[in-house]
What we know:
This protein is of the alpha+beta class. It has a single domain, classed as 2-Layer Sandwich (Beta Polymerase, domain 2). Helices cover 43% and strands 19% of the residues. It has 6 helices and 7 strands. The protein has helices at 13-30, 64-74, 113-122, 124-137, 142-156, 160-163; strands at residues 7-8, 35-39, 48-49, 53-59, 76-77, 87-92, 99-105. A 5-stranded mixed β-sheet has the order 2-4-7-6-5, with helices on both faces. Strands 1-3 form a two-stranded antiparallel ribbon. A hairpin with a 6-residue loop joins strand 6 (87-92) and strand 7. Helix 3 (113-122) packs across helix 4 and helix 4 (124-137) packs antiparallel against helix 5. It is globular, with a radius of gyration of 15 Å.
Amino acid sequence: MTRVNFINSSQIYENTEKTFFSHKxxxxxxLPEADVQHVGSSAIPNSLTKGDIDIQVRVVSDQxxxxxxxxxxxxxxxxxxxxxxxxxxFKDDSIDPPxxxxxxxxxxxxxxxxKFRDVLLLNHQYRFEYDKLKKKYEGKEMDEYREAKNxxxxxxxxxxxxxxxx
Length: 166
């Protein structure tokens, strides 16, 4: 039974930025064509975060198989995540902060992590609502939080702000 806890992203900003840039360089050395982006709550200043960092690696479809191979050498496959022909999730829990890497094909159904970040950066109200949701689930079951978070993001995908991002 895993419980979820949050901290303000400003408390770990320096460490997450350092981690992001070092892993971006590592990934770009091996996948120079990839678009590597810092996503998730640690990419949103002054938001609540679980204290981890998420990176989205975006590639065109013909680069996806090679990207899976490369990222498999760098990180552990996240077995608890969805696995499709357009999406793979990897992780490294041994570093501080723990790292999640989402590999997506550009413009595929899972190519939305950067959009969530951008909408939250541009819209204070959505960011406030997301932090409010996190406060509600502070100390509660991770699965309960993830279910509520998924519902929040499904609703965000219906907003004009989300849908105008290309």
